[in-house]
UniProtKB/TrEMBL annotation:
Keywords: DNA-binding. The keyword DNA-binding applies. It comes from the Bacteria. PROSITE patterns: HTH_TETR_2 (PS50977). Residues 6-66 form the HTH tetR-type domain. Residues 29-48 bind DNA. GO terms for molecular function: DNA binding. This is Transcriptional regulator. Pfam families: TetR_C_8. Signal peptide: none annotated. InterPro entries: Homeodomain-like_sf, HTH-type_Tx_Regulator, HTH_TetR, TetR_C_Firmicutes. The keyword DNA-binding applies.
Amino acid sequence: MDLRIIKTHERLQQALLILLKEKSLNEISIAELSRLAKINRGTFYLHYKNVHGVFERYFSEIVEDLKRSFELPYDLTNHNIEQLQPEMIQIFDHVQKYNSFYRIVFDEKVPLIYYKQLFHTLRSIMKEFVQGHSLNLTDLQLDYLLSYQTNAIIGILMQWDENDYDLPPQTMNEFLMSYIRMK
């Protein structure tokens, strides 16, 4: 992809993050987003139809990275959780990489729509993963299990956010490993 196109997308994403701290996605105009990103509206329309398109593209990028970070430890251990080591866990590195986005998602002043979108996305990733394994659960039990596990991960991420990401991802990995190994 052309470097200019990449830079335009990055500018729009950064401008969107700044504006999302102040207002909801529906309140952001193309004009103010373009102005903050230092691009003209014509350039905006070359790449997107509306502001939601910028958000959707950025969210898709985040989701792809989240999915890779979630799956990597399982791929490395051939799905044998007993072989899991803290350095194999990537979800905290992912959150650190996109922490500007996660700060918005977990901000109490921001509408719950972003949190719910993250919840349903992470839950879908987990569901896709567990469907390949034979768990002796009814569909209803599986739904509750997935919600429980998703909320556990999001709860840890929210606490990390609340503490202003004060601990490095490696320490968070070690915490998560100790929770996984609790009996």
